[in-house]
Design a protein that fits this description.
Length: 405
């Protein structure tokens, strides 16, 4: 039975919103009137509200990563417990905290009750459930292991979010130090330096070169700072336009894989996503070629994605997965060796899980090492900039004292 989102007024004139199931919008309005409500807006759940509410609801019209992980975990738990899909979705809709989540789940339930499979219902909401998500659900439905697949999918989403959060938190402190240093230097150049150096403006004393440079820089910061913003905007726009083209983007991503420090992080992060996705797909019984294609689509590095496409061609021609991935020379040797071991023992899924967990730990270690290296370097750089400003201010004073003596 379809679900409809409504906004209605009660007898006191208070607005009420929610989701109601009915055969049609007319039937939904009839149900609302029998409840003593005057319907104002009634339309299928999952569609954007038109009119003056559009701008207000345009923000947040998508599942967050936390909500997607929580929804998947709860749905997996309910299905493993034996609840049918429609009843599990009803439970999720009843306990959803955000209106959009409630309306989304209600819309999916309505489509399932209308005869759609769960994967087919999710396909109508591609912004909230990406293709890899829908492919896993479809594989679980075809193999009859939907509860198990949803559990593994929930584990994958939670681990991916946790890894991303650790990386973001690791770089948060260096980013804060950089912003504080920029603010302090800008304050010194725009306020402190002009106040102190203006004392020597009326004298005939020849100022040191470092002081003259600092005065010119101070004038630029106070008067022409907007030029810097324009230059940054233009450069950013040009870089974005250039990287939007296939050739330059591919060349940049290839260089990124070999870049100092950042290259290993990019390669490790994509390897974790690839191995984890491939493990879930093979465990769900997805054919290896389809699994490789779906796992390759999760990579955000174009060069690695192109190498996976080459590996798919080799596997289609009869080459083993481990040999095909080894031929790309992109993925870590540990991943290739573990896959080869899994092929020999007939348990590729376990080896892929082991490779993903090991690479995730290595990625976290490298991230922590890089941030622990950046923190003292940033502090030293900030101290060096402040030292230069202090010298530019103090040198004329020291020279003046020497002349007086």
């Amino acid at each position: 039975m379809p679900a409809f989102r409504f906004e209605a007024l009660d007898t006191t004139g208070k607005s009420q919103r929610g989701v109601i199931e009915a055969d049609s919008a007319r039937g939904a309005r009839g149900q609302l009137r029998t409840q003593g409500l005057t319907p104002v807006v009634v339309e299928p759940a999952g569609q954007r509200v038109r009119g003056e509410r559009t701008e207000r609801l345009a923000f947040g019209r998508k599942l967050s990563q936390r909500e997607q992980a929580l929804l998947t975990r709860q749905l997996a738990s309910l299905m493993v417990a034996g609840l049918p899909v429609d009843e599990a979705l009803q439970v999720l809709a009843d306990q959803a905290e955000r209106d959009y989540v409630r309306e989304l789940v209600a819309a999916i339930r309505g489509e399932v009750l209308g005869g759609q499979s769960l994967a087919g219902a999710l396909q109508r909401h591609p912004r909230d459930f990406p293709e890899i998500y829908r492919a896993l659900v479809s594989a679980g439905e075809h193999t009859g292991k939907l509860g198990v697949v949803m559990t593994r999918l929930a584990d994958y989403i939670e681990q991916r979010n946790a890894l991303k959060q650790k990386i973001v938190l690791a770089f948060t402190y260096p980013a804060i130090v950089t912003l504080v240093a920029f603010g302090i230097v800008s304050f010194l150049l725009s306020y402190v330096v002009p106040q102190v150096v203006s004392v020597f403006a009326t004298t005939k004393q020849a100022l040191p070169t470092i002081t003259l440079v600092m005065m010119a820089l101070s004038d630029f910061v106070r008067r022409d700072w907007w030029i810097t913003l324009i230059v940054l905007f233009v450069v950013g726009w040009l870089v974005k336009r250039v990287l939007a083209q296939k050739g330059p983007k591919l060349a940049f991503h290839r260089w990124l894989l070999t870049a100092p420090l950042a290259g290993k992080l990019v390669r490790g992060y994509n390897t974790v996503r690839f191995a984890s996705t491939l493990a879930i797909l093979t465990a769900a019984g997805v054919p290896i070629l389809r699994a490789l294609q779906a796992a390759g689509e999760t990579l955000n590095n174009v060069a690695m994605r192109e190498n996976v496409d080459d590996a798919i061609v080799r596997v289609r021609e009869g080459t083993s997965l481990s040999r095909a991935l080894a031929g790309t020379r992109t993925f870590p040797p540990v991943l290739v060796h573990l896959i080869r071991s899994g092929e020999a023992t007939g348990d590729v899924t376990t080896m892929l899980d082991r490779a993903a967990n090991g690479e995730a730990m290595e990625l976290e270690r490298r991230t922590m090492f890089l941030t622990s290296l950046l923190e003292p370097l940033l502090i030293l750089a900030m101290g060096g900039m402040v030292l230069v400003i202090v010298l530019a201010v103090m040198l004329p004073i020291i020279e003046l004292n020497q002349l007086v003596q």
